[in-house]
């Protein structure tokens, strides 16, 4: 008999086909009566497929007594009760390594677009204002700047490599010093004060909530640029809005927001910010790799092999 797998969020088509070939699927994502499906699936499903937006909490876990593995096809897992999963002996896997390059590229794209006012310049050409009003105003350079990176994990390091190619000096803030040549700051405000550009690439969660505070934004200053590919909770969004509105921060490039998918209109109305819809990893190639990694973790679990990307 094929092993049973609960699908709360589907994978990419090719990986879903592989799941269907090798496992008996219980499609919670398609269920007309989710409660009835959980009654059927709970006693038999040892593995479950989710993404980083799906809530795996105690009430759900109570209905899945056989569950041993949650295979997440995203890097983040903030909505999941990891302590409760760990207490029950349930393993969580994610896909953080699969999305490093595209997320790092997006951080650079947002930085370039924010400082060079790319969106505004595009609109200037499309509207005919170039012909009517003459040359577009001068913008801020992206060459030979001082870039502070908040969180020097795999994504942070990939961002640093790209910034180095642009002639940037690199400083970083994190929980510990890394074996790298970049300048380490144990004080985030001091890093922001030094930097022209601050790029945030930390995980979300309670440990980093509000880390980019009003004080940090003030230290970055009226010529500074804030870029975030982290989580919306990491930045004090009200402080960011006020600083951008009042000219105490020059620009921002954001892929993440406190209220998704409906960011604060006061933020999205600002002309000196560039936005992307929490989609930094959203390329066909990367999403295929992420789905495959989730599939490979399930295969390893049922084969009794070590998990590829365990979180707990």
Automatic annotation (TrEMBL):
Residues 109-280 form the D-isomer specific 2-hydroxyacid dehydrogenase NAD-binding domain. GO terms for cellular component: cytosol. Keywords: NAD, NADP, Oxidoreductase. InterPro entries: D-isomer_2-hydroxyacid_DH, D-isomer_2_OHA_DH_cat_dom, D-isomer_DH_NAD-bd, NAD(P)-bd_dom_sf. It comes from the Bacteria. GO terms for molecular function: glyoxylate reductase (NADPH) activity; hydroxypyruvate reductase [NAD(P)H] activity; NAD binding. The keyword Repeat does not apply. The keyword NADP applies. Gene3D superfamilies: NAD(P)-binding Rossmann-like Domain (3.40.50.720). Residues 5-312 form the D-isomer specific 2-hydroxyacid dehydrogenase catalytic domain. Belongs to the D-isomer specific 2-hydroxyacid dehydrogenase family. This is Lactate dehydrogenase.
């Amino acid at each position: 008999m094929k092993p049973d797998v609960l699908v709360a969020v589907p994978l990419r088509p090719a990986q879903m086909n592989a799941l269907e070939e090798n496992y008996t699927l219980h499609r919670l994502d398609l269920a007309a009566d989710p409660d009835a499906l959980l009654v059927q699936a709970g006693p038999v499903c040892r593995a479950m497929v989710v993404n980083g937006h799906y809530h795996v909490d105690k009430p759900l876990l109570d209905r899945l007594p056989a569950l041993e593995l949650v295979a997440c096809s995203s890097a983040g897992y903030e909505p999941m009760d990891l302590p409760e999963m760990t207490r029950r002996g349930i393993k969580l896997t994610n896909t953080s390594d699969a999305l490093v390059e595209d997320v790092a590229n997006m951080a650079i794209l947002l930085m370039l677009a924010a400082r060079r006012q790319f969106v505004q310049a595009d609109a200037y050409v499309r509207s005919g204002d170039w012909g009517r009003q003459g040359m577009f105003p001068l913008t801020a350079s992206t060459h030979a700047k001082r870039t502070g990176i908040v969180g020097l994990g795999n994504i942070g390091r990939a961002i640093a490599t790209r910034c180095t190619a642009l002639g940037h000096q690199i400083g970083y803030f994190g929980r510990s010093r890394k074996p790298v040549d970049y300048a380490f700051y144990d004080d985030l405000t001091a890093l922001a004060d030094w930097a022209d550009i601050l790029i945030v690439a930390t995980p979300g969660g309670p440990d980093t909530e509000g880390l980019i505070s009003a004080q940090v934004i003030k230290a970055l200053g009226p010529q500074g640029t804030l870029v975030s590919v982290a989580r919306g909770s990491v930045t004090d969004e009200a402080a960011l809005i006020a600083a951008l509105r009042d000219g105490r921060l020059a620009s921002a490039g954001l892929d993440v927001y406190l209220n998704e998918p409906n960011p604060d209109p006061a933020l999205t109305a600002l002309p000196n910010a560039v936005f992307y819809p929490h989609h930094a990893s959203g390329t066909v190639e990367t999403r295929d790799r992420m789905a495959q990694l989730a599939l490979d973790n399930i295969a390893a679990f049922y084969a009794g092999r070590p998990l590829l990307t365990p979180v707990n």
